[in-house]
Write a structure and sequence with these properties.
The protein has 317 residues and is α/β, with parallel strands linked by helices. It is built from twelve helices and eleven strands. 40% of the residues lie in helices and 15% in strands. The radius of gyration is 20 Å and the shape is globular. The protein starts with a helix and ends in a 10-residue tail after the last strand.
């Protein structure tokens, strides 16, 4: 039931057939059903809920009709970028990103001009709601993207508070890479007769060759450098468990004449953007990041991932 414009735009983007998550979830989304969907990053879920959101949007009603909550700024930016691409066929759709780590003032200015769709992180969305610079009186759809990650990062309380500002009658879409007890509990509390969609078994697994290195204390950085010279990867993301470590490893690599940059939550938004641009255009070969940045980075053709530390859980790995 898509408009001719939407179909033409999808064709131009190169979306000729649906991914499993799109084929399974879109009929429910268009039928105004709540869904709890299990799908991994890169499965096409953003387009699944994005197409659903845009198909139901009333453009002439210049109010916030959809809220998309994400765990990180990077993911919020990525979701907003894809939505804007999907919305090219629909005139005058205003999509606004509201995340922490960026100045509050410019966001106020953008909100005064109004928006149809808001994409953001729970903490900053809640701050705007409490200051009454944002209201959900006309909210019709709520999307929780990477819900398990938001819970891992301790956003449970903020999500609950945000929900108190939302109307009871709305469509709620919950996307998660895992179905934990906490996720199922949230679904039960905030959703009504949610349809379960699981496509992880249908998704093609990435072809990954895995290596484990047992390293003597104090020799991890040198081993990392040896790994790079052995495999000569085109681009690498090195994940660490702390921000301090990310900075230290990046500096150690630069000292060894390896182009490396750190990415973590202590950087200002413009600094994060600059780091990601340099890594995306291959100006910098190695990105050293905390695992919080893991979801939301859309890097095509990534050659190597190094877990410098063992991640805290299997899902993060």
């Amino acid at each position: 039931n898509f408009s001719k414009e939407m179909l033409t735009n999808l064709d131009k983007i190169g979306y000729s057939s649906m991914t499993p998550i799109q084929a399974e979830s879109l009929p429910f989304i268009l039928d105004k059903k709540d869904i709890i969907a299990q799908a991994k990053t890169g499965s096409g879920k953003t387009a699944a809920f994005g197409i659903g959101v845009l198909t139901k949007l009333q453009v002439r009603k210049f109010r916030v009709q959809t809220l998309i909550l994400t765990p990180t700024r990077e993911l919020a930016d990525q979701v907003a970028k894809e939505l804007r691409m999907l919305a090219r066929a629909t005139h005058n759709v205003k999509i606004l990103t509201l995340c922490g780590g960026t100045a509050f003032g410019p966001q106020l200015g953008s909100l005064r001009h109004g928006a149809h769709i808001v994409v953001g992180t729970p903490g900053r969305i809640l701050k705007h709601l409490k200051k009454e610079t944002l209201n959900f009186n006309n909210l019709e759809m709520l999307v929780l993207d990477e819900a398990d990650r938001m819970l891992d990062m301790g956003f449970s309380e903020e999500i609950n508070e945000v929900l108190e500002f939302a109307p009871k009658e709305k469509q709620t879409l919950l996307f998660s890479a895992t179905y934990t007890d906490e996720i199922l509990s949230i679904s039960k509390r905030i959703q009504k007769d949610a349809q379960s969609v699981k496509t992880t078994s249908l998704e093609v697994a990435n072809k990954i060759t895995e290596y484990f290195y047992g390293v003597e204390y104090g020799k991890k950085v040198q081993t990392l450098i040896n790994i790079f010279s052995n495999f000569t990867p085109k681009n690498v993301i090195v994940f660490t468990n702390t921000k301090i470590q990310a900075d230290e490893i990046a500096k150690a690599l630069v000292t060894s004449k390896i182009d490396a940059l750190a990415l973590h939550g202590d950087l200002e938004q413009y600094e994060r953007n600059d780091v990601l641009v340099q890594f995306s255009n291959n100006s910098c070969t190695v990105l050293v990041a905390t695992d919080v940045a893991a979801r939301g980075l859309d890097i095509k053709e990534l050659s190597m991932v190094v877990n410098y530390d063992l991640p805290h859980d299997r899902e993060t790995y």
